[in-house]
Amino acid sequence: MSTAYSPVPELNLLHAFQERHGYESYSECFGLDDWNDTSGLEAGWSADPGFLAGLIPFARATGGGSFYALWRIDDRPDLPVIVFGDEGGEHVVARNVRELFRLLTFDSEPMVDHDGVVFYRDPDDEHSEHHDAFVTWLADRFGLAPADDPATLVAAAQAEFGDAFATWKRQYLDW
């Protein structure tokens, strides 16, 4: 009997999809990593137990080492998604996992710095090998459409959670 990847049903379904199609094969540089491996947070941000308890790292965001984590803002079932940049910067990018899935359909690794996060894709770039299968899977499984403009999703997440996250992280990070 296999165990679930996480307590988040949508991520368990994505994990099964990734097992069939491969890590980084459906969205540029994205892949689910070990659930709640806090080593990146501890090494680059803070080892404070309160900080680590408030975040659940779960996926690689870029080829350089940026990663995604869920933020335990409260006991809601749909937690906001935070991106941590490999060269610094930590930002709310999605209001929940399903919005992150929509961002992943853009098939571009995010550019993360201290000032913000941007998803850019050259129209001439080829999509990842299993991008079309991923887009179809999202539509069939969740009724989700691809993101035509990732900035709109990021802006909505920032509007709802950005200030609260900035306030929360200040108690642990002194920059």
Mean pLDDT score: 95
Question: Ranges with pLDDT <50 over ≥5 residues?
Answer: none
User: What fraction strand?
Assistant: 15-25%
N-C termini distance: 46 Å
Inertia-based shape: globular
How much helix, percentage-wise, in residues?
25-40%
Oligomer: single chain
Largest sheet: 5 strands, antiparallel
The helix-strand sequence is: HEHHEEEEHEEHH
Report the total helices. Answer: 6
Descriptive account of the structure:
- The longest helix has 21 residues, at 150-170.
- The chain has helices at residues 9-21, 39-44, 49-53, 97-104, 131-142, 150-170; strands at residues 31-32, 55-60, 67-71, 81-84, 90-94, 110-112, 117-119.
- The chain has 175 residues and is of the alpha+beta class.
- 37% of the residues are buried.
- The strands form 2 sheets. Strands 1-2-3-4-5 form a 5-stranded antiparallel beta sheet. The protein has a two-stranded antiparallel ribbon with strand order 6-7.
- The protein has 6 helices and 7 strands, in the order αβααββββαββαα.
- It is globular.
- Helices cover 37% and strands 16% of the residues.
Q: What's the arrangement of secondary structure elements?
A:
Layout lengths: L8 H13 L9 E2 L6 H6 L4 H5 L1 E6 L6 E5 L9 E4 L5 E5 L2 H8 L5 E3 L4 E3 L11 H12 L7 H21 L5
Antiparallel strand pairs: 1-2, 2-3, 3-4, 4-5, 6-7
